[in-house]
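retry 2 of 3: previous attempt timed out while embedding adenosine-5'-tetraphosphate. Reduced batch size to 1 and resubmitted. Inputs unchanged:
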Amino acid sequence: MSRLFSGIQPTGNLHLGNYLGAIRHWITLQSQYESLFCIVDLHAITVPQEPEELRKHIRETAATYIACGIDPHKTTIFQQSQVAEHSELAWILQCMTPMGWLNRMTQFKEKAGKDRERAFSALFTYPVLMAADILLYKTQIVPVGDDQKQHLELARDIAGSFNQRFGVDFFPLPEPYIQGETTRVMSLRDGSKKMSKSDPSDYSRIHLTDDADTILQKIKKAKSDAVQGLSYDQDARPEASNLINLYAAFSGLSRDGVVEKYASSGFSVFKSDLAELVSEYVAPIGVEINKLLQDPPYLDQLLKKGADTASAIAQKHLSEIKQIVGLT
Ligand code: AQP
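retry 2 succeeded.
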């Protein structure tokens, strides 16, 4: 069975972007691949985190994976920091990754912002840790949102250059799996920005823990434009197009199908129908997350078991890598 790896940072409540860009694909692919779903806490600390909050978010992320439909019996759910080989391989790969490759990463520029000199060095080398996460398991497929495409290309370049330098065929080149209308879900307040956990406005995103009423309020208040009726135009009408994408993703209709369905009704009818549709999916997930969070020992045990399974693969591969590199 080919192997799948993906992960999410425990940096806050997960949202529709995480669900539509990544998790819903994990659910469909989990029975076709040997799947490892990681809670990438080492990535989370590339920006400051409150220790108590981080601990809480790690359990919440595990609960969210399961509540969304990841089967903990069929897959491996684990915490990145509990498998030390991720950091060790990241160091080895950093010793082979040119600065020029990292300088091209647009996410560093976005996340570091204007205050680049004060950004932590780990934010700059983050994509190498991500490559290590993937390559450590000789992963074949990585389902992610569109924002991770460039990092995936870097992981392929690092794998290819390692193989070539040592004359081996050790790392498979991981394939990105980026599919559907919602590979980039945009903020509900600004159609030019992606929906993100770190956006200061709660109204910019729909959390997977939001109840039906909150979802309705957020979608009603979602930014729209002055153009009459509904039409899809990513450049001219980014906010309307984002809502159409959301409707299409949850209904299974095409974008054209959504536009046709609401051709004669106004924005407010479309928005309340969209809220109802999103609630049908999301509200039960929130209920399940809260149920799972009532049982911390269950989640901790599951993460421990996941770390043991992941460690067994990681240790074997890292020892082979050390042999290839000449460290042993
Ligand atoms: N808006 C989005 N649309 C589609 N996919 C998205 N993903 C995140 N946001 C969107 C996908 O979710 C997975 C995990 O992302 P992450 O939380 O580890 O990191 P991120 O991309 O940096 O997400 P956030 O919400 O923006 O987190 P913060 O604010 O903490 O930096 C990835 O597969 C990603 O593509």
